[in-house]
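SEVERITY: medium
COMPONENT: batch folding queue
REPORTER: lab tech (J.R.)

DESCRIPTION
The queue accepted two submissions in a row. Attaching both inputs and their returned structure tokens so the on-call engineer can compare them side by side.

ATTACHMENT 1
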Amino acid sequence: MGGFVETYRGGVAAWECDAFGHLNIAFYGERFDDAARDLLERRAPGGRWRTLALDTSYHREFRAGEGFIIRSAVLDSSPQAIRIAHEAVAGGAATRTTLAEQVVLPLAPADGAVPAADALEWQRFPPLQWPAGAGPIPSGRDRVKPDETEAGRLRLSSCLHRFSNACLHVIEAVGMTHAYRQDAGRGFATFETRLAIDDPAAGAGDGLVVASEVVAVGRSSLAMLHRLAASRDGRALARFYQAGVHFDLAARRSAPWPDSLRDKARALVAAAR
């Protein structure tokens, strides 16, 4: 089989950028999901699929007005799961800026077939050990909107938007408040995310909650874990690991944590354990 094929070509709209001036992580996930559908539509027309996991590594930020391309390939394939590799590159450039690995579940493969794997070099994402239990930081509570579901399941992008908002509550819990960010000219830039979808069954009007915890803190980095659940019965819907850096908005690079914020973050790590 061949290697990567183009599965998306578009750009970054200003309204898709977050308060820190770069493409929001939820829109990366939305683009990769579109790319997977494009690839599978070509390889197995008529099939139906849903995402089980999406791991993403962000090497350079995309900003408003930038064009970019996604190329995708099948890493491995079986009736139980299909693993897809994605690489995003800036328009007109050959350098990878974002890499993603997506696992999809075949729901109704065309003619009972699944696409064959491609021959390509790819460094797999290492497995992640998910901590047990819900985190101590309340970071989301709302209800499912009618346009957020497909075939009785919460859309991937709907999960990711909630996790993106949850990140704001976590960084505020470590002292990175809106006032601090404005005065210090600081933001948060994500460099790795891991999404695992447990049970996406949801209907319009269903209540959702997100709980988060800080799992690691470094010189400028912070790693957190978010869990999305049904508010009525506590049923787990999805989990999301997110690692990023304290970010200098003028220089567009990481900046060391002030001691006071690092101490708060370390206290939250200890509390979660």
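ATTACHMENT 2
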Amino acid sequence: MILMVVSIASAAPFAYIANGNNVSVVDTATNNITATIAVGFSPYGVAVTPDGATVYVTNSDDNTISIIDTATNAVTSTVNVGSYPRGVVISPDGTRIYVANAGDNTISVINTTMDTVTATVNVGICPLGVAVTPDGKKVYITNYGIGYADHNEDVAGNDTISVIDTATNNVTATVNGFDFPYGVAVTPDGKKVYVTSGGGYNASSTVSVIETSNNTVTATVDGVYFPYGVAVTPDGKKVYVVNNQADSVSVIDTATNTITANVDVSESEGLGDPTGIAITPDGKKVYVTKSSLKNAAVIDTATNTVIGTVTVENYPSTFGKFIGGNIQKAKLNGSKAKASLSKYKDKQKNHSKHHKAKKNHQL
């Protein structure tokens, strides 16, 4: 008899897609929606804890964070944060949450043990994207600016990247030279930060590369158009960038910082308005949320082609690392594995008793 034990680590992850006033839970193995969770008003930023047990969602029009237990797909707590929260990220050890509050130019730091805000950090104007280094020591925030009509390069904190030291919750560096910076992502080795810029009209569309060792821009990638969301593959070899006004996704080779492919995510129905992007933990699939078409495109990273579409009820604009471990399936698989192991052991015991009885009879 061959016993198949399914490990928790092998369980397929979920994509948590914010849309309307809900979060749709997508099984990335099947691309089926397995649950719909009501959260606050205008959810946008989504982050999943490293163990896949909890999801944090920013509710922009509520000034709150909804905390979801993935085992039950229920909101277990709501935390008040700053004004108009957008991006959110979780520290690698899962103990802290960093929320970008675009309305009051602050970052809320949440202790996950108590689910309370323990610090508020002043950053630049209109913070949107937020990313943390793998060692958990630095947080990078994109300060988008003061809006299209009032755009002014001379305003302090406008079009910058703020760098927070997580040990002190102080801004220790400000990186300049951007034009409406939006999305931000850190490579797995913690050496580079990729920032999308050009989300405003008449702005220059680029992806900038920051060296974390000295917080300086060392490369600029052209060829993108209104870039919003950005994500790095788990192996650190590729960066995927959403081109909002081009209905496409650009693929950047991190070794050369050049675009090696452009994936068309458009549909005949019209402009998809893609915004958010996330990559599965195994690096095989990329999910791109398209607000106007009420769906998410699924890209195969091996071929850089669209292999599927997930339809949601409302208008998805999910932003951040919205894919994480499937704790429900892991628990189910773990239970099945334990049950199978128990049955196997019982069968072995019965077989042993039968063998002994047969041997005694022969004697």
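NOTES FROM REPORTER
The helical segments are 327-362.
No errors were logged for either attachment.
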